Amino acid sequence: MNRLIIGCGYLGKKVALALRRQGVDATGVVRSEAGVSALAALGIEALRVDLDDPDTPPLPLSGCELFYFAPPPVAASRIVGWRACLPPVTVRERRVVSSISVPPVFMVTVPVTGG
């Protein structure tokens, strides 16, 4: 099963590295080239995606476990991009974790069965 980490910043990198220590590969989804470079320096595969861009194609979610650490869009107009990138999925398991960041960080692992 593929692992996709959306929002692979501070917390996402830690999850990706922990998965790698367990022998599990993961792809980190980041917004910027700087994010891609930071992941590459750690040996983590990166996918550059702007979730707020409505022209972004859907993410490859079929058959993957999804870790979601990105904050929700600030403006209602950006939700269009999110809906394009994150098609409806069937969630079999949901785990929520907290952090001391503001806003709080939520993690959802999604073994995706469709999308």
Helix/strand layout:
Layout: E1 2-6, H1 10-21, E2 27-30, H2 33-41, E3 45-48, E4 64-68, H3 79-85, E5 109-111
Describe the structure.
It is globular and about 35 Å long. Strands 3-2-1-4-5 form a 5-stranded mixed beta sheet, covered by helices on one side. It has one domain (2-111): Rossmann fold, CATH 3.40.50. The protein has helices at residues 10-21, 33-41, 79-85; strands at 2-6, 27-30, 45-48, 64-68, 109-111. It contains 3 helices and 5 strands. With 115 residues, it is α/β, with parallel strands linked by helices. The two termini are 15 Å apart.
Q: What number is the mean pLDDT? A: 74
Strand and helix order: EHEHEEHE
Per DSSP, the total helix count is 3
Radius of gyration: 13 Å
Which keywords apply here?
115 residues; alpha/beta; Rossmann fold; 5-stranded mixed beta sheet; 3 helices; 24% helix
Brief synopsis:
The protein has 115 residues and is of the alpha/beta class. The chain has helices spanning 10-21, 33-41, 79-85, and strands spanning 2-6, 27-30, 45-48, 64-68, 109-111. Helix 1 links the parallel strand 1 (2-6) and strand 2.
